[in-house]
Amino acid sequence: MLKDKGLVIGIIATIVLIAGGVFLMTRGAPSTKKAISSEILVPANEYVTGGVENGTYLPASSSAKVTLVEFGDYQCPACIEYHPFVKRLLAEFPGKVNYVFRNFPLSQHANAPISAYAAEAAGLQGKYWQMHDKIYESTGEWVESGDAKSILIGYAASMGLDVKKFTADIDSNDVKDKVRSDTNDGNLVKLDATPTFYLNGIKINVTGSYESFKSLITSELSKNN
Q1: pLDDT score at 34
Q2: 166/179 Cα distance (integer angstroms)
Q3: pLDDT tops 90 at residue 50
Q4: What is the pTM of this model?
């Protein structure tokens, strides 16, 4: 009996030692996250900005060593919360960070698709980022509206866009195909929430704090100096 008990204790001790060794090796092992290719995250037809200066979005920067890609939904509360964080980052690091917004409208948000179509339709007239901001910064007006489309057309008019063209484009197959393509790429990388951010191809975890978000950017910038 005692002999059997001693044998059991010895086996348990061995298992604990092995488990502890595995834990230590795992804890000390470098990250093995694999970067998603830029062909998936940043296709040729995406709008890319290299920062914000004096409130104006800059063109993509050829010297930027960091690319931040967001899959977002204009009606998503968390995306709405992160929008000013992203804009603040772009203002702090002009020319150093390229940013791309990919559409990933969630099925539970009734006005998410039409808001994505509006941004893309405005982009066809050179006002993508202006509409992007207007949509995010006016959510109280359109998110719960039964006629969000009319409100979005009103935004286009206030920006001086050709309203007739915008109204046609917002319903066009080209615009809908663009949003569908973004969504398909999100599904390809197995997104399960918005916003989802990729920093130089690696999915990052965000916590709701601007400073923690900024620290991820500065860390990546320091690695690429």
Answers
A1: 85
A2: 16
A3: yes
A4: 0.85
- Rounded average pLDDT over 124-141: 98
- Look at residue 41 in the predicted model and tell me its pLDDT: 98
C-alpha to C-alpha distances, 179 to 5, 75, 98, 167, 186, nearest whole angstrom: 65, 15, 20, 16, 11
Q: Where are the domains of the chain?
A: 1-30, 38-223
**Contact at 8 Å (CB) between 145 and 69?**
no
Specify the pLDDT at position 154: 98
Q: Measured between alpha carbons, how far is 217 from 166 in angstroms, rounded to an integer? A: 35
Q: What is the CATH number that goes with domain 38-223?
A: 3.40.30.10
